[in-house]
Amino acid sequence: MSFWFWHGLRKGVQSTRYPARAENTPGVSPGRPVNTDFSSAEEARRAAAICPTDAIIAHGKSTYINHGKCVHCQLCLRSLPSPMNWEPGYEWTRLPSNRAESLPLPSAFAKSMHIMVVDAGDCGACLRELKQLNNPLYNMHRLGFFLTATPRAADLLLVVGPVSENMRGPLLKTWEAMPTSRKVMAVGACAISGGVFGKSFMCACGVSSVLPVDFEVPGNPPPPLAILHGLLVVAGRKSVGPVQESPKGDTAPWR
Ligand code: SF4
Asked: What is the pTM of this model?
């Protein structure tokens, strides 16, 4: 018997128990800022001013976060006398701001879903986190999620990156080649809002300006468990995460 066979038997299963159980191992998620009530309007304004992507809006003594724009620079945590509240967790998948609801794939796909990944100008960070889902700790195959290199066999189009002008055509062609039961998931702040790239002559400022997006996974980059939560939402095995309130009192996710 090989060394690795006995090693495996001795150590037992090391993969995360998520989604059956919450994964609380330190370091699995960087967490994220959440809406915060400060003691003065000046503190709230200071928090909004420090954010490089305008993800924080000050409204009186309160600040509101648009997670679709947050690039996880942590300036609002580390560089303010009164930091923003910061939540742990990773179940961040949400609906795009232009959709009241998105249906998951039909139940036949719940335990076997094929994913086509398109890098639409990604810096490499979201792809690196996505790659972790294939390692023994996250092991997405145990949940029936598989990557495919052909759009004809794909159920989900997973897009990372802000959609650079050069990738607009290939992205559309990929989407058109998929079966019509397809779902689209934008992963990362750049794919949701353009992130640090913003809108320019070279950048479409997010996937939803090119294709109808069904689900979004905020984060910059989102940790592997956040992406896994997104896959489970698309497969209808989990529901979308809690929604942050917007300054208008509107509970829909906002940009
Ligand atoms: S962590 Fe997010 S919300 Fe906070 S300053 Fe950076 S980009 Fe803005």
From this structure: 0.93
